[in-house]
Amino acid sequence: MIGPGVKRGTAEIAILSILHASSLHGYEIARRIEHQTRGKLRFTLASLYPLLYRMEKRGWVRGTWQISQNGRRRRSYRLTAAGEKQLSPLRQEWSELFRALRHLAKGAHA
Amino acid sequence: MPDWQKLVSHRLAALSLEPQGTEEVLAELASHLEETYDALRMDGVPEEDAIHHVLSQVPDWNELQRKIQSTQKENTMSPRVTRFWFPALITFVISMSLLAATQIFGPQPLILHPANYPVVTFYVFWLVALPLIGALGAYLSHRAEGSLGTLLVSSVFSVLPFLASILIVLPVSLAFDHFIAHNMAPMALVTALFGWVLAPGTALFAGGLLAGLLLSSRSTSRGVTTG
């Protein structure tokens, strides 16, 4: 199980990656992240929205109100150009970190 | 089924954002809770358990309110502004204010008049203070995670307007002012560049470089790098 500290750090990259594929509303973002990480990453309302609002303030995502097929009013988020630009170096940074940790773990087991 | 909109409005009663912002946040959070509840009910979860599960999403409403409120106060300046423009303008304003104060209140400048060259004026007190101002620019840029290059350019930024004005004003004056002795122009250019660009630029650069190296070595010994 991944600890809370690493989860906090991966939260931004998880949201950016999910929105890179398609525009989604908050509930769906949480549901897809949970599904695609097989429950390893789980967002509650309390952890998701402050992060989404912060990312929107930074200009990485943009939310617009839409009416769903069942008449429900929902705010759909899409990745902006600034968010796209952010995603690539973040991915690189995290893959480097995980590679370094894997080397460290291999060294410890050797 | 609970009135989620009412519940969220009640629990986040003190939330105060920009006009319309509060209403939109409350509506969005209520919609999320409602959707979670509906999904649980569709999966066959009893109403009471579903409500309990939905409410467990927010263990502390005051904490959530504080977090949402803090996102609105976050600094939204771009990295280029915080790493370069802000430190550069701060050092520019301080160095120009100090120069003006030195010219008005003293101490008297050192005036050199080398043979065959125009007069060169050195505001020694100002020049001595410039390394500190350069170091301040470097510190501000470093605090915003600026690279060593950005940090040095923001340190010496104060002399760039001098450089630009000398390179523009002198040729323009030569072209339009017929009272300027053309034989003195190259020497005037050299002395102006030395007195207003090279000397203060060196002082700012020295302060910026020293501070930059000091701050970089401190952060390297504290941090862990990857790659």
Strand percentage of chain A: 5-15%
Helix- and strand-based class of chain A? alpha+beta
* Tally of DSSP β-strands of chain A: 3
Distance between the termini of chain A: 23 Å
Number of distinct helices of chain B? 9
The computed structural class of chain B is mainly alpha
Order of strands side by side in the largest beta sheet of chain A?
1-3-2
Largest interface: A-B, 23 and 27 residues
Indicate the CATH topology of chain A. Answer: Arc Repressor Mutant, subunit A
Point out poorly predicted stretches of chain B: 222-227
Describe this structure in words.
The complex is a heterodimer of chains A (110) and B (227). Chain A has 110 residues and is an alpha+beta fold. Chain A has a single domain, classed as Arc Repressor Mutant, subunit A (Orthogonal Bundle), CATH 1.10.10.10. Chain A is built from 4 helices and 3 strands. Chain A has a 3-stranded antiparallel beta sheet with strand order 1-3-2. In chain A, β2 and β3 form a beta hairpin. In chain A, α1 packs across α4. The longest helix of chain A is centred in the C-terminal third of the chain and has 29 residues. Chain A is elongated and about 60 Å long. Chain B starts with a helix and ends in a 5-residue tail after the last helix. The relative contact order of chain B is 0.10. Chain B is 72% helix and 3% strand. The C terminus of chain B is likely disordered. A two-stranded antiparallel sheet of chain B has the order 1-2. In chain B, α2 packs across α3 and α5 runs parallel beside α7. Chain B has 2 domains: 70 residues, no CATH class; 144 residues, no CATH class. Chain B has 227 residues and is mainly alpha-helical. Classes of the chains: A alpha+beta (110), B mainly alpha (227).
